Amino acid sequence: QLAPPEIFYNDSESHKYTGSTRVQHIQAKMTFRALEILNLEPGVPHYLLDVGCGSGLSGEILTEEGHIWVGMDIAPSMLATGLDRDVEGDLFLADMGCGVPFRAGTFDASISISAIQWLCNADTSSNEPKLRLARFFSTLYSSLKRGGKFVGQFYPANEDQIVQITSAAKVAGFQCGVVIDEPESKKNKKHYLVLTAGSSDRPLNLGEMEIESVRP
Dihedral of CA 7/10/14/17: which sign? Predict the structure, then answer.
């Protein structure tokens, strides 16, 4: 059992994580994949929320792609590392399990890389995953413009966590599915939660991908 992220990512872990070229490469690849699925209008800067932004590795890709972004994360050391690296996004210290602290309709879209599985952790008696998931998805839904989209790469511990996460997203009002890249590979298999808040002119780009519909 890992410590919760705000404790696990202390100063030395944050620097080590951010400085690892392997981590940078994987994060970049997953961020590009999330953007590909989001299918935003090309050549137009969008206002994006990066949930669990860490030290801004995914945010740097958003900047490179011409978007304006805000990042929220629970780990002060990760955000401090992001500030040291002078990332372009505005960084907020916030626990996604307590909700997305932005006005309704603020964002065009949102991404999250390797973060939302933490919502399923009951690491203290007051951390009730069901409530945290409900709070996160309902406030994420309202913070997006109508037709806004979310793509979140996550590491589910088991099938139950996928069901927990997708059920909470559906209850909040999202159309919801899970894309699985390289499903045959134990090492490279990646799960992406894909959500739409109402109908969009540019639907999610799922290509030939089978969206795995998750039982309620």
Answer: negative
Q: Assess contact for 69 and 62: CB atoms under 8 A.
A: yes
Give the separation between CA 211 and CA 103, rounded to whole angstroms: 30
Whether residue 13 contacts residue 7, with contact meaning beta carbons closer than 8 Å, is answered with: no
Q: Is residue 18 a contact partner of residue 55, using CB atoms and an 8 Å limit?
A: yes
Query: What amino acid is encoded at 110 in this protein?
Result: S
What is the structure's pLDDT at 148?
Answer: 97
**Helices 159-171 and 129-143 sit at what angle, rounded to 10 degrees?**
50
The length of the chain, given as a count of residues: 216
Q: Provide φ and ψ at 13, rounded to 5°.
A: -60, -40
| pLDDT (tens digit per residue) in 185-198 | 988 899 999 999 98
DSSP state of 2: P
Q: Which two tokens stand for residue 98?
A: 């307590």
Nearest to 164 by CA among 206, 193, 140, 143: 193
